[in-house]
Design goal:
Elements: E1 4-8, H1 13-24, E2 28-33, E3 54-57, H2 63-70, E4 75-78, H3 85-88, H4 92-112, E5 117-123, E6 132-133, E7 139-140, E8 165-166, E9 168-169, H5 180-198, E10 202-208, E11 210-212, H6 225-234, E12 240-241, E13 248-253, H7 254-266, E14 273-277, E15 282-284, H8 285-295, E16 304-305, E17 318-319, H9 322-328, H10 336-347, H11 356-365
Parallel strand pairs: 1-2, 1-4, 2-3, 4-5, 5-10, 9-17, 10-14, 11-13, 12-16
Antiparallel strand pairs: 6-7, 6-8, 13-15
Amino acid sequence: MSKTILITGGAGFIGRHVAQALLARGDRVRILDSLIEQVHPTRARPAELAADAELIVGDVRDEAAVLKALSGVDQVVHLAAEVGVGQSMYAVDRYTSVNDYGTAVLFQQLIDNPVERVVVASSMSIYGEGLYRTEGGELRDDVIRGGRNPDGSWDPLDEQGRPMTPVHTPETKAGGLKSVYAIGKFVQERLTLTLTQQYGMGGSALRLWNAYGPGQALSNPYTGVLAIFASRIANGQAPMVFEDGQQRRDFVHVRDVARAFLLALDNPRADGEVFNIGSGVDRTVEEVALLQAKAMGRPDLTPEIAGKARAGDIRHCIPDLAKARDVLGYEAREDFAEGLAELAEWVARQEAEDRVVEARRELEMRGLVA
């Protein structure tokens, strides 16, 4: 039987894909989104938002707007959030207001207007550094990196000064909150799991890795790294890579992310749980920049290696997807090479303003790049 699903922040990159997947299977979709200028420069309804999705333009911090959006809703996908590790370190009040207080307002209304289930978008940034193994085989979940090592390397070292190897990070790893953004995502996650349980609703959190695909905000310098690279390449500039480019990440296609949300909405076994959502394949950031430049027909634009780190960045974090596979039945389906080709084709039809240098200057001015 079809349901009515509210997607907060649903006019954004991930929300539009979740909406499309829900509509394709016959559900009704309502979206609450404030259409902020950083993500939506024209402040107009995005052309890529499905025509069948109802859009309420409003702020998740506005009680009246949230109450209106919840009317007649069966389930909620909570995506509304300010996104960006670097920017969160100086726009502290803005990020905390939207991510923490906005989630509190949503649940204040849900107490009197409960739904079947709430699925919140969390983030791999909650972990800080991922799980590591020492040369002696010891697993370490408490790694804290202090920046570049005395020998010029970047990988975390054990007490004997030996580099440790990143391994797959399970949901049981303790958090290592290194940015305001990570703190906000942790708050969103905990509020969702605590209050849904208290008030008889189902609730779960998806810790998303680096989502990519057509539809990202190319002119937003704090969006996903592949969109940032694409904006640079589209403007004839080399991708800018922090540190030495050898930090490892998992890049997951947005359609796989959308499927994960549907699986969590449908499965009562997800209630009270958090799940890693990624592709299952990790790559270095430098490798990805090279592949993207090639996919966009500019293999000559080799990455510009900054040799500096941003405050809040982590070195390595790769997901253990066993729980998502076993409980949700989640498996990533999208091929990375095909995904990059699709992204390149989409970017070629867009106008992208390259604001990466401006964003880096802002971070440097505030002492957040070293």
